Amino acid sequence: MELLKQRILSEGSVVNDQVLKVDALLNHQVDPELIMEMGREFARRFREERITRVITVESSGISVAFATALELGVPMVFARRKKSVTTDSDAYCERVPSFTKGIVTDIMVSKKFLNADDRVLFVDDIIANGDAAQGLVRIIRTAGAHLAGMGVVLEKTFQAGGAAIREQGIRLETLVKISSLSDQTIRFED
Ligand code: G4P
Ligand code: NA
Ligand code: NA
Fold first, then answer.
1. Cα–Cα distance between 151 and 122 in angstroms, integer?
2. Which GO terms of the cellular component aspect does the record hold (predicted)?
3. Which residues are bridge partners to 126 per DSSP?
């Protein structure tokens, strides 16, 4: 998405070699028109998969997942983060480390909103090391649902998360690939 690259260049900022600040676009403020454009693009790429639910993790994946679900005409479910471990027989739970915050959290999805009949599209804002993503993949597998694929807005290809997802045979579509953030410079993969 050329438009998205332009917006990242004009509104994003390099925090360090690993982290790109995009809170004007994805993580704090969102531009509804731009988010809808992303949703249309993911819907276009996965339309033939007969998706029954779009799933994401709160919070920053929600806007794009919503836009995608609206375009596909299906519900969107967001995994919730829990601060304390609560064993809940009515929910799927997984423990995940958080790359940016340096803490461990538990994510959970109620068994009411994910089941073995589902054909799931997992949508997220950023893939870095992929720890959060792997946690949600485990939840989808535990539920016995079919994971049709993953759509992520921004992939940092110099980190291992995207490659690890693809190695598992999961179809991962990303809108923008960033190959490096070194020297305070955003470099896109061509
Ligand atoms: P992930 O690749 O599956 O997202 O897992 P990882 O453990 O690598 O990243 C954990 C969190 O860090 C995610 O947000 C992810 O979006 C965020 N993150 C990773 N790299 C960057 C980056 O370069 N810039 C920014 N702004 N965020 C980054 P989260 O913990 O799920 O929080 P939330 O944003 O959804 O609330
Ligand atoms: Na995030
Ligand atoms: Na996210």
1. 6
2. cytoplasm
3. 154
> 2-11 and 32-46 are packed helices; what angle lies between their axes, rounded to 10 degrees?
140
- Residue 125's alpha-carbon distances to 7, 25, 50, 128, 142, in angstroms, are 15, 10, 22, 10, 23
Q: Give 80-105 pLDDT, tens digit per residue.
A: 998 665 667 899 999 998 766 778 88
Helix count (H) and strand count (E) of the chain?
5, 10
Strand partners, 157: none
Task: Check the annotation: does 129 bind a ligand.
Answer: yes
Residue written as tokens 């068994």? 111
Query: Is this structure's pTM higher than 0.90?
Result: yes
Q: Is the CB of 128 under 6 A from ligand 1?
A: yes
Cβ of 27 closer than 6 Å to ligand 1, yes or no, is yes
DSSP symbol at 56: E
- Is the predicted ipTM greater than 0.90, yes or no? yes
What's the 22 CA to ligand 1 centre distance in angstroms? 11
Token pair belonging to 181: 């953030």
pLDDT tens column, 3-61: 999 999 999 999 999 999 999 999 999 999 999 999 999 999 999 999 999 999 999 99
